[in-house]
Write a structure and sequence with these properties.
2 copies of one chain form a homodimer. Chain A is α+β, with helices and mostly antiparallel strands. Chain A has one helix at 56-78, and strands at residues 30-33, 36-41, 91-100, 110-120, 123-132, 135-146. The relative contact order of chain A is 0.21.
């Protein structure tokens, strides 16, 4: 099964969080799991807040790209279109909110689970929760906006 | 002039965003500028959203650590204490919100300017704005909470 991000057009695959072409980046991969979406990510040892715990900025980044990926997949699903059909749906982040519920351990694979709260016009609102060992440690919301057609076209 | 982060205790200097001891991290440096705080940061070429623009997750990370650093400095200032006096004030992020106002170019030094909105008990609320070439491209709010005394003590 291909991840959402593997359907992104080549010129939009440079994102530090989710671009398959960014060799320095996180290259997250997101999939459907019923009506939810799932990303699994193992932090690097240096992604620390304080030793033993994951940096909150990384969690914000994961929630961000999980959110825009989920938004695209949700739009394809709503329109009954395959993710490799054109024109491609791609989203930018209008706003990002994260509540840090408790410290997130760093030595485990984190699971980010997304839920679509709203689809309205070119806007999709995604709620995403970060789990470590099955415990919710952060909860975020991404307001994703469909990208203008010419965004990133120069690449 | 030393940056706020240079006063962090050694065991709390491992943060990926702002820890002087994290050689893989962003190592941001924040200073007072009157009643505002300022961080300047030049993204790496691979910190891309789409080519030519800065990744929003990086901006969230910069706002996050700028916010916790500003919170600590504000608390020292309110109590009339030098930043190298003990016990050290250090903050964790309770919540983070970012509104992305427009695409942020990647090939410039970004300026993050912070303003203290509220100090109440162990909580400090910081508003932070990201400027590129003098234009505000993102605006965030960090609710910073004073760290429990034993946080990170194991390091």
């Amino acid at each position: 099964m291909k991840a959402f991000q593997e359907y992104y057009p080549d010129n939009l695959s440079h994102c530090y969080g989710c671009g398959a072409n960014n060799e320095h980046g996180h290259r997250i991969k997101t999939y459907w799991d019923g009506d939810e979406t799932v990303t699994r990510f193992t932090p690097e040892p240096y992604h620390t807040a304080v030793p033993g715990y994951t940096y909150g900025g990384l969690l914000a980044s994961l929630i961000d790209c999980h959110g825009t990926g989920t938004a695209a997949a949700a739009m394809y699903r709503q329109e009954g279109r395959a993710m490799d059909s054109l024109p491609a749906f791609r989203f930018v982040t209008g706003s990002l909110h994260v509540d840090y519920l408790k410290p997130t351990p760093i030595d485990v694979t984190l699971e980010i689970r997304g839920r679509i709260k709203e689809i309205k016009g070119r806007k999709v609102v995604v709620e995403a929760t970060v789990y470590a060992n099955g415990v919710a440690t952060a909860r975020g919301e991404v307001v994703a906006i469909q990208m203008p057609d010419n965004f990133g076209a120069a690449a």
